[in-house]
Structures are given as structure tokens and as C-alpha cells.
Design a protein that fits this description.
145 residues; alpha/beta; four-stranded mixed β-sheet; 3 helices; 8 strands; 24% helix
């Protein structure tokens, strides 16, 4: 039996990192529970103190097919390279120069939203199609491929 997966990001700024990944993936912030017009209203009703209301955020795939992304505030910063990372498919169906140009364009778009470009890996046929290594605003590595 297959299981649903949620991807969780430990971070310093849940709302800020959620905004970046919403932009990167075309996801949307999860709506508040039914009966509430805003998350602030829902958290107030749940008794969450005002100073703790920014401790988490969540994103959903608007098509309902991708995993939920959850962002939770933690006190410590990132210390080492990720052992697991996301591959963002930014150039499906493209090859060679056209593929790398599409990846470069997406990298520039994400840089304008706080990403950092780390490395470019050129295509190396037959198996290597080329990709870019990036970091989100809190330093989590991901690839554009």
C-alpha cells in the first residue's frame, strides 16, 4: 500500500520560506480550517499565543497531486549539506542548449525571490542531461533539472 508523504522543512522563517517554495513550485498556502476566514482567526480560537502564530506554515499542490510541504520554526540554523534534496523539474522535454537555457531562466527567476545559484553541471551524454544546483533563502540545496 502506497503512503502519502509530507515534506517538512526545519527553518527560521516559516512564512518566508513557504512563500519562496510556493513561487518555485506553483503551490499555494493551505487555507485555514473551515469556519475561519484567516489563519490568525483560527489560531486565536485555538488559543495559540500571538508570538507563536508564525511558527509554522504549509503549502499544497493546487492540483492535489503533489505532497504537502510543511515549514516549522526551529531554533538552530542549517549546519551541513542536505543529504536529501528536491529536484525541481524546470525543463521537461528539453535537451541540450534549450534545456540549459530554460534552467538558467528559471534560476534567474528564483534568484529574484531569494535563491542562490551554487553550481552548473553541463550535459554529459548519454545519461547526464545537465542541471543547476541552487539553495533556497535559508541555504537548503535543491536542483533545477
Amino acid at each position: 500500500m502506497a503512503r502519502d508523504v509530507q515534506i517538512t522543512f526545519d527553518c527560521a522563517d516559516p512564512a518566508g520560506l513557504a512563500a519562496f517554495w510556493a513561487e518555485a513550485l506553483g503551490y499555494r498556502v493551505q487555507d485555514p480550517p473551515g469556519g475561519f476566514e484567516s489563519w490568525d482567526q483560527a489560531l486565536e480560537a485555538m488559543g495559540v499565543p500571538p508570538g507563536r502564530r508564525g511558527d509554522a506554515s504549509a503549502l499544497l499542490d493546487p492540483d492535489g497531486s503533489g505532497p504537502r510541504l510543511f515549514f516549522q520554526r526551529v531554533p538552530e540554523g542549517k549546519r551541513a549539506k542536505n543529504r536529501v534534496h528536491l529536484d525541481v523539474r524546470a525543463a521537461p522535454g528539453l535537451e541540450g542548449d534549450a534545456r540549459m537555457a530554460a534552467l538558467e531562466a528559471e534560476a534567474e527567476r528564483l534568484i529574484s525571490h531569494g535563491a542562490t545559484r551554487l553550481e552548473r553541471h553541463e550535459p554529459a551524454p548519454p545519461l547526464g542531461t545537465g542541471h543547476l544546483v541552487m539553495a533556497d533563502p535559508e541555504g537548503n540545496e535543491f536542483c533545477l533539472d
